[in-house]
Structures
1.
Amino acid sequence: MQVVSLSGSPSPRSRSAWLLEWAHKHLAPRAKTARQLNLRGLPAFSLLTADFRDPDLCSAIDAVLDADVVLVGTPVYKAAYSGLLKTFLDLLPQDALAGKVVLPLATGGSPVHLLAIDYALKPVLGALGARHLLDGVFVADSQMPPHDTLGYLPDDAVLARLERALAPLAAQWPALPHSTPSRLPITESA
């Protein structure tokens, strides 16, 4: 299986990036290929002008098209996923997520943004052809306080929700463990 992670956070260190990396680190060792795409690293001009001649932009789009599993991480601002993620998703072909397993992960300042996954992000992912959308995981900032060495320290309920979100892949991917380590530090990714 090929796994790709899309980070829609404009910040290099963020809760949504931490969640995405946690999920990615648990899937990557079992994947044929695993790639992390930090959308903030794509050339802004090419991204905003849909310059399909840009090799970095084309490589990112191809990574999504070639993937079997797509992890999507985003902060929630004003009850919607990030503009950075929206800009990238707009460049994908209409059926880009057809036949793929998609796991949305989101963070927000408070639980009032909980439904952003279901009412903002999932409809767009569905419009891109995603039919196998796993239950998303939303985490409020208070559930993941900053930590000096680990980046963030999610509470046990968050970790349990992450494990449950990945569980459907275990049936399709027997090598995926049902129980995973609870704490992984976040690192800067290219």
2.
Amino acid sequence: MKKISFVLIFALAFSFAYDMNITKGQAVILEFGKKGLKEIQSKSNLDKKEKKERFMLHPSDDNKVMLIFSSSYRKPIKEAKISALYANGEIKNYHLLGYDGSYKVEKLTVAANKVKPPKEVLARIQKELKEANKIYATFTDEALYDGKFIKPLDSAITSHFGTARVFNNTLASYHSGTDFRAKVGTPILAANSGVVRLAKDRYYAGGSVIIDHGYKIFSQYYHLSEIKVKVGQKVNKGDVIALSGDSGRVTGAHLHFGIFAGGNQVDPMDFIKKFNDLVDEKVK
């Protein structure tokens, strides 16, 4: 009996569990001690088996690593378990409970061919979607960013992430980014340093730029009138990468700004706040 009790106490001493919530369309950034870390696994209600996760270096603490874990807006997680396994047998678990969040509904009127595009452009739309998904599947195993993220321009937000988009009385999509007020020709800044992975005109997004910041973090800038960067170009945080416009599916000139992180489109302003809070941390 004493032996069994000792084994049980020993097991409990080396297993730590933390409960957290995760809202659809948002990311959580989990921190783990780096010393002795073997691997990090995850399993949600959407997975058939556990997955090995690729983690990243902590932006302000050399003794830690981080994992960005996100919940899809369209296929949200109900529950998930993240486990960090250590060489000494220690296990650190995060239990995540999913929530829908409180997102608004927005009714818009746009050209009919933008809601139900003509057949002749369907191939183009599919090609552009595959191109983007290929970019987002790329894991650059290093930090291309430089410290905190910044806003791409200093302007009022006109539409928040997650709003259900009803085009011409038809529920077509949800708003996958944050819209900033910007007249045509307003300079748009890189939210952080990185490498340009896409710079072209697209059917829905119009003039588009996508920047890779490393560790599968991407920023997106849509509806541009002029693009000032090229694919493969390295940019620094604050560089002018484009001018705002009214191209693509829009009701007027503005900048659509997005963040793709943890394998999903996430609320960019929420992600930036969470990430920047970690950059602010001081090693004690």
